[in-house]
Amino acid sequence: MNEMTIAGIRLNPHVAALPPYNAGMNIAVARKLSGHDEIAALASNENPHGCSPKVAAALAGLDPSRYADPACVALRAALSAKLDVAPERIVVGNGSEEMIAAICRAALQPGASVVTVSPGFGLHEIEALANGARVVKVPMAKDLGFDIDAIVASMAEKPAIIFLSSPSNPVGPALDHAALSRILAAVPKETLFVLDEAYFEFTDGDTPDGLEALRDTGLSHVVLRTFSKAYGLAGLRVGYAVASDERLARTMTSAKTPFNVNAAAQIAAVAALEDEEWMRRSVAAVKAERERMAAAIAAMGLFAPKSQTNFLFLDVRRDSQAAMEHFLSEGIIIKPWKEKGFETFVRVTVGSPADNDRFLAALERLLKA
Ligand SMILES: *Cc1c(COP(=O)(O)O)cnc(C)c1O
Fold first, then answer.
1. How many domains does one find in the chain?
2. Which among 193, 202, 255, 313 is least surrounded, fewest beta carbons within 10 Å?
3. Which of 100, 121, 225 is the best mutation target for the ligand 1 pocket, counting ligand atoms within 8 Å of the beta carbon and taking the most?
4. Distances 25 to 39, 285, 314 between C-alpha atoms, Å
5. Is the pLDDT of residue 2 over 70?
6. pLDDT digits (tens, 9 = 90+) for 37-78
7. Which residues in this protein are found as N6-(pyridoxal phosphate)lysine (predicted)?
């Protein structure tokens, strides 16, 4: 890799050459660009119901002058009880995305290879590249389901890490029991299996729970979950990793900054876990809206793979950037996909019923344009 110098400073060439992360547009920016006050923010898979009222109540006890607990003891204890996993195997992050970075920093050496899928979650590639790894992207199948044969074949070169998000971001489907078992049987002992379950709470009943599926495999693994989606705490940044082994968790802990999870995030996450009933009701409402939107999109003759998440990935059959601009002109933010081969796809979050109606009406106008 070429050396990179800026104003006499030699930069880390892996970091200097990273592609940008394709983040959803900020609401204030969208207001300015579109001239609309009421923005339907459907690009970042946030919870349209906000979060449990118990979270706001708990945050009243926040003391901003004190450092937060660097070990997140109360939150890890609550997660340990919920998941039936020793707290020593749990690492809490400033969002689960920080845990993706910590895994790469802990487990990669320059020249290592990392396997993931395409289309896929940007950070699974970006954090691997940042640590000097070579990234192998296995294309999803023609119907945009996971290509199990190809994923199994990719294990032949014994990558340092395989990252899979199931349910898939951006596509939506989840691995079923048989597919996950086939992949796990092919993962070599020297490969760290990372299952990113950011959308676990939105799956249907017969989807495997990654923690259970991995428990007795003997594979080194990490399962990632987050409070950003189902629990509605995206702005506070809190997610977690469950590692197969305490030493792996300790190394990930060394790979992050010590006070990575702020005090508000810790208080909010503990309170959110004390009101799972709120989360379940919210998720049920989102899933009902997801099916309503999927049916409306199918009735327009567009392809959108079946989703087990809080978003839909659809082929709008025209340039995704132009489609994004059309929606933005109506005050709606969606995410245009940019990965090669998927430039006519957009990802839309399942929002409130009113915002979803706005999206569907704007989609009909886009198709007529
Ligand atoms: C949203 C998301 C995350 C990151 O969520 P955080 O807000 O950082 O907890 C991780 N993985 C996938 C696949 C996601 O979609």
1. 2
2. 255
3. 121
4. 11, 25, 19
5. no
6. 999 999 999 999 999 999 999 999 999 999 999 999 999 999
7. 229
Q: Do residue 323 and residue 233 come from a single domain?
A: no
- Judging by DSSP bridges, how do beta strands 311-315 and 345-349 pair with one another? antiparallel
CB of 151 closer than 8 Å to CB of 117: yes
pLDDT tens digits for 130-167? 999 999 999 999 999 999 999 999 999 999 999 999 99
- Residues 15 and 118 reside in one and the same domain: no
Q: How many whole angstroms from 199 Cα to the centroid of ligand 1?
A: 8
Q: What is the DSSP letter of 237?
A: -
Both tokens of 323, joined, read: 């489609």
Which of 124, 146, 168, 169 for a ligand 1 pocket mutation test, highest count of atoms within 8 Å of Cβ? 169
**pLDDT the model gives residue 4:** 77
Q: Domain span at residue 352?
A: 8-50+277-368
220, 250, 273 - which closes a domain: 273
Q: Is residue 85 part of a domain?
A: yes
CA 180 to ligand 1 center in whole angstroms: 20
For 172-201, what is each residue's pLDDT tens digit?
Answer: 999 999 999 999 999 999 999 999 999 999
